[in-house]
Predict the 3D structure of the following.
Amino acid sequence: MKKAWERAGELYWHATPVILSEEDQTWTANLKTQRFYDQILSLDWGSHVPGSGAPERIMVAAVQALENRGYQASKRAYELLDEGLKALEEEDYVKLHKISAELRYELAQAQKDESSPYWKYQIYESFAQYEKSVQFPKKIQVDIESAAFRDKLKAAWLSQMIGAAMGTMVEGYTSQNLYESFGEVYDYLREPNTYNDDITYELAFLDAFKESGYQVTSKEIALSWAGLVPCGWSAEEIALRNIKNGILPPESGTFRNPFNEWIGAQMKGGICGMVAPGDAHLAAKLAWSDGEVAHANNGILGEVFNAVLTALAFTEPDIRTLLQDAIALIPADSEYYSVLAFAWDCCITCSDWHEALYCCQERYKTYNWIHAYPNACCEVIALYYGNGDYTQTLHIVTMCGIDADCNAGMIMPILAIQQGMGIIPKKLIHPAFEELITYMRGIEKISLEELVDDTLNSMIHAKNKEEV
């Protein structure tokens, strides 16, 4: 194997001198790069959600997320927030880049807030620690080569597209404001499409799963991200930058990542459950490996919750029993469990889902609408009050607002898995769902049928590989 100095030397010693024209010496490419980075930075300070137009300020949310995780941002960090918003308004990008760099430094130096309730709960740092804290049910065998299973798998993917499309139209708004603007929503507010970044990360998981099957590692998933996913948002974008800088899981999810307990892991647990039907332990293991690419602790537990919900849906027909079983697989001493338990108690004691949602909104009002906690509450509320009815469940999860596309995209497949394609109302099956459109490298388009076959064939291959 040639040494690096030999390779560099070959390039240097064999380079033929040329004279460049003046046009070749301009800074045109550099100026384009400058404008690109200015635009990217401006999105951190003020943007609108592509699907719904909801406003976001990711730098403000970074401070919020850090304090939700039991740290206290400095006075200087708050001063920088004000200065940054002013610089954005004035389009002073020289100043904005300086402010952003200093603010990120301040967040990295944030001190632990000993008075925060966050520290009352157990911190979960590994799957080994997590699996010792819960009692997994016995695996129930599912025939993945049967026609009935393929029907459920197709229903699951289609329902994720339906839920994501419905939710994308309204994400980022409160339930109250949705009612004021649209009234009761039972149908698409515009022509639906499949533009949704949540599924992107499930496809990246599937890419790694094809190669390594049930032994897939977080490193392999991270490398699939690096190859397939060009950009992300919040926790995923920071993790992508970390990965490309050689910081691999679990550090990719923890290094200077204030958003690692946001919804990003929770929104993609479904695929881990799909490929582990009837096996909660395996679903949880896969979800942990997938989750730690960009998340930690409660963020990963959010993905575990949705993964086991999905896996157990193949064998448990009653939605409320399923919900209880999945909650029981979250450690009782974790903060994430306290969120699920609170939402469940609200469902039992409140007169209707509106009252339950209001109670959860009040309890978790200090959390960003993209955080895992308020959205986990919406999942519990919609599944409980929907009680197995597809139309009603979709209506409730949509009208809950918050990060509605993530929530609907995760829970609607649960009902579809339990009952198959027949449960999906025909009026919701739009021609747009025949093809998934993504912004991923090499997977710009994939048909629904191809996606189902791809998932199924990967499972069969992985199963055969395990049995050898």
